[in-house]
Design brief:
Layout: H1 4-60, H2 62-91, H3 93-117, H4 121-144
Helix pairs in contact: 1-2, 1-4, 2-3
């Protein structure tokens, strides 16, 4: 003969344990999202700093910039010509045209990603704050109703 009160208490204890675990997983998920957002924002900030330094170098010496650009373009052209020759020798000219089409698609996708996902650090911090507030509210109610 089972005791219904004991069974009810066990079920309640299991439910509370599951709620506590769910709360932990929710908190961990929010922290992971915030960490990812911070990483993206910091990478963008670093890219902006590099860009600013580069612009300052350009302002200070246009001839130096022109020489760097020449060297960069020359190296790119040589590398592309070498890649094109090797690819055509291995796969043929028709396949090279497909590669050029794919290059156009990839460049377009890259530009779209930069447009849509180029968030500012302040935006990410604001979202981070919202996540912390939401987590605090959920935690408060879990604690208030003795679910944790």
């Amino acid at each position: 003969m089972d005791n219904p009160i004991a069974e009810g208490a066990k079920t309640l204890a299991n439910s509370l344990e599951q709620s506590r675990e769910a709360g932990k997983k929710l908190t961990q998920s929010i922290e992971n999202i915030q960490h990812d957002g911070t990483e993206v924002a910091l990478q963008e900030l670093e890219a902006r700093k590099k860009h600013k330094i580069h612009e300052q170098a350009i302002e200070n010496s246009m001839i130096y910039r022109a020489m760097q650009e020449y060297e960069l373009q020359k190296a790119i052209i040589i590398a592309e010509n070498k890649a094109e020759t090797e690819f055509k020798a291995k796969y043929g000219a028709k396949e090279w045209n497909k590669v050029l089409e794919l290059k156009t698609v990839v460049e377009k996708e890259y530009k779209e990603n930069q447009k849509y996902y180029g968030h500012k650090l302040e935006d990410v911090k604001r979202v981070q704050l919202y996540c912390w507030v939401a987590a605090a509210i959920v935690t408060y109610f879990l604690w208030r109703f003795n679910l944790v």
